[in-house]
Amino acid sequence: MSPSKSQTHRTSRPAPSTFSIVARDPDSDAVGVAVQSKFVSVGGVVPFAAADAGAIATQSFANVSYGPDGLTALREGIPADQVVETLIEADEEAESRQVGIVGQDGSVGTFTGEECFDYAGDLSGETYTVQGNILENRETLTAMAKAYETVDGGLPERLIGALHAGNEAGGDKRGEQSAALYVVKSEGGYDGKNDRWIDVRVDDHDHPIDELERIFKLYDITLLERVEPDETQELCGAVAKAVLTTLADIGLYDGEPSGAFGDDARAALKQFQGMNNFENHDLALLEDALARGWSESDQTEPAVEGEARLIDAIWNGMSDRERL
Predict the structure, then answer these.
(1) Cis ω before 208 (30° cut-off from 0)
(2) How far apart, in whole angstroms, are the C-alpha atoms of residue 311 and residue 154?
(3) pTM above 0.85, yes or no
(4) Mean pLDDT computed over 162-184
């Protein structure tokens, strides 16, 4: 018997090997998706989210209509598990699909069709669901769940941590190519004019999760706001000298680096601030972040130097302050 038209169409499409996590943070009402795939530009296919509805990952032979249709249903107050049932009941190719949904109401739903390529499966927790196909093993999913529940930090750190853990536990059988992080919350977007709080994508890279994390840190410093510390630290001593040496290396400071961080040093730091669009944080807060985070950035893997070292140190120095 020859295959049906729908079967022929499906098997002619690329089958991305993908793992993802969909989650909600009850403390901030943020919801989002993190995903990695051996597939170009996975961020353009898998994640959907709306602050007034929830978040959805549609993958395997992805049916992208699950995104807008599922968000509409969530917005109408239908729980995530019922939304999943409705979507797959209306889809004649549902057994080749995989979907994870977390509603803004806290409901969770997931589905893995029997025709998804092995290893394929899903795993849900109280506020999240992980799912993957063409994986090395089920441990990819269990490692993601454990990491999400134990990694320190806010929702974006926990989502990225889950991707790292899944990849290290086995990940995609076919390797790595792209990754994405999409998180929404009410008025979380640029200038508070939409809900697109975090939207970072790596479309084609040898190590997309590492690159996703690097770009996210830059995005975080540039676009997101943090609670200001009660007291700020000034740079001094060995850390001040190391920061000035780095500013000199990138051509922003022409004095002799020392343990004193005076007016000329702050002028160089202000140049660095302007070059990188870090005006979201005043100069004293950047100096405070460098003072707090420089030594911690020594632990960054892979090691970074120059401008990347300054950015990593600022991010580390801000990481214990709550995002607004």
Answers:
(1) no
(2) 19
(3) yes
(4) 96
